[in-house]
Amino acid sequence: MHHLSLYFHFVKLRIRSQMEYRLSFVFDLFSQASVSVIDFCMIALLFNRFKQLEGWSLWEVGFLYGMIGICFAVAEMIGRGFDVFQESVVRGEFDTMLVRPLGTFYQVFAHEFVLRRVGRLAQAVAILLISNSQLVIYWSFAKVGYLLISLVSGTCFFIALFVIGATSCFWTVQSIEVINIFTHGGVFMGSYPFSIYRWWFRRFFTFIVPLACVNYFPSLFVLGKVESLGVSPVGVQLAPFAGFLFLGITMLFWRFGVSRYQSTGH
Amino acid sequence: MIEVDNLSKTFKVYHHRKGFFGSFVNLFSRKHRTVQAVDTVSFTVERGEIVGYLGPNGAGKSTTIKMLTGILVPSSGSVTVNGYVPHRQRKESAKHIGVVFGQRSHLWFDLPVQESFELLQRIYRIPQAQYRQNVEIFDELLNLGDFFQTPVRQLSLGQRMRADIAAALLHNPDVLFLDEPTIGLDVVAKARIREFIQRINAERQVTVVLTTHDLDDVEKLCKRVILIDNARLRFDGELTTLRRLLSTERLLSVDYAEIYPDVSIPNAHIVYQEGARVQYRFSPEEISAADLIGAILKKFKILDISIQEPDIEDLIKTVYEDNLMLERKLAEPISPDTQAN
Amino acid sequence: MKSLYLAFQVYLAFTMKSFQKRMQYRVANLAGLTTNFFFLLVQIFVYTAFYAVYTGPLPLNLHEIITYFVLCQAFFMLMPFWGTRSEVTSAIKSGDVVLQLTKPVDFQAYWFADECGRAYYYLFMRGLPTFLISILFLDVAIPQQPAVLMAFAVSMTLSIFMSAVITITISSSAFWTLDTTGIVGMSYSIITLFSGMLVPIALWPEWLAHIARWLPFEGLIDVPFSIYLGKITGIDVWVAIGKQVAWNLFFLGFGRFLLTRGFSRLIIQGG
Asked: What ipTM does the predicted assembly reach?
């Protein structure tokens, strides 16, 4: 309880300092939204030409796009502390965290909150809602709950990727930029139905980096495509938990990394 | 209060291959060598002591402090602070210690000092009454009020240090670690911070461990000093003992009003002579500073005169180079008259 | 003539310096190269799936599409928006840029030289490896006629130059507003879309393609790649290259206008 209220206090302070430069904030918001809307333009252009993709319509893919967009925007908004962790180490901020009576994971998590990602979030939510209005989806409480769990799980998935990138800083000074493949690349590939990818690609992004579990499988359930594609319904319902599991594993990795921390300068 | 037993820390330093191919290979395998930063150091500090932890740059001071505060995990040996093992019971240990690094602030850069303090109140769960009382006392001693509403990034170095030290004491820690608390400060700011540390130590029985390059800090604050060099403990004892052992020689610089052909003074050795400026080296055991100055004034006209204390780096160098001699001297009993000096 | 040659040598030195500065970040470049291939792979999967079921006539076949996106990834880092965060921009923001006026060099030419250094670095360290590796593993079309290759080389060089002059134009906004993220973000969106980097303009609906043809940005990606693929031939090649030259001159002049205004503004305000 203490941790939660403290977290919100941190967030409040962060938001306030970001709002200090109001004009700059508005520009940022605008720029964020316009950059991400371009990705959807690409999808719309393709569907305008080709009409459908392995039985998926534009708005079904729009739903998929909206889901992954929301997860990534929220992850970037709240998980930024891990994304910029390398700088925290260089500036000695991590040393400060270590002398405070709070967990390191918690502190790095609470360290940053990027409000301007709201621009991207709003854009993704808008696409999701428009897609929903264009499709005939039979909503039930269970389905809404399932969708929300999936979105939280997808957010955990991206945060987990940031954590992996941050943890690598304990061994190498140059943070591994390869992690961008999975974050930005994940958003890109997650915007299309997984069935279009080769089997080895699908395996990798289901069992090792469980992107499909937090995005594609949940969308099958929500869009009512489970039966027609012959995927195991139980598997689809359990899939979102892979995101939580993934984050859990990376948290263990983080703990291991912290024990190897060498600090800067002697 | 603090117990350190055979504490060691080694670092791996990676060797980076050069060239395009080399940087590619670096990704997969890296050669490294081991650097011993702290080597089997042992000491204990009792409650209410102020200990100066001294040594040249790269001697292992900061590494030791980082192990005492739970930032680094020791390679071997043991540490307890307030009965906690800092790296294993990090969060518990953190509640009972205060840490200040002179080189960087622990406060939030873009928050006003007051909000930083309030955040710390939440983090350490400091009761409101205690928080208010502490802020009041610290304000009185350090004049925090002048800049209490200013964002930390806009503070001067002296203000920032005052805020940082006060922040480190808000939760009434039993031990305070200060790493270079007066670095870069002017004389007035230094004096103020020393006075504050002294009062906190006297009134609250806070144990203080202090690293510094400033001999004045040590003289004003520490009864006891621990010297470390090249990762090893070189001396642990009273400052007066160290002084007697080390400051056998001092320097006296004189600017004469005119150039004299012969400026020699008995019992003082001329280090160098450049025009009207002359530097003498003398040993207080052979001639006191007052006698030396008297002798000079009797013979010559002067413009300016100053005595230089050997600075801490030099002292420590002496200890390091002269290690055997120091041990021999330590074995000798201290006679009352030299102690008074 | 001799003085022109000497001036050229000075700016060539700036280009070389800018190139060498980037040589330090080779590990990051390796990561970038991997990222390029990942995106390329996904793009190929997407288009393969679209092409598999579509039966109507298409202006580009799958083989040509793959080639198009190989080129896209190869030249990705040469696009304008990557230069907008360069040292020159931060020098404008801090006002240090006035120091440049004390040097006996033309500022726009200096900046242009610096941008060219960046472009050539990414051409050799990112573009060439991407292209060569792609030839080994993917079905990449290679033009058979030397004339096509020549025309492509000319068009691509003009694309690189235009990228530099556009960067200078966008970044000049820093003279007026300290916060350029809004403008950079907007231009990023417009350029990625209308250059044809996301989807080749040939596949667009007619009305939108028409707009793209009237904008300069097709000269960055779509024009040189279409020449490469033999989609623009004969006299049209000359027209396309002529348009690129015209747009280059436009941005050169516009950028110069902005810089002059920006500097006078900076000097009046006292930097």
From this structure: 0.91
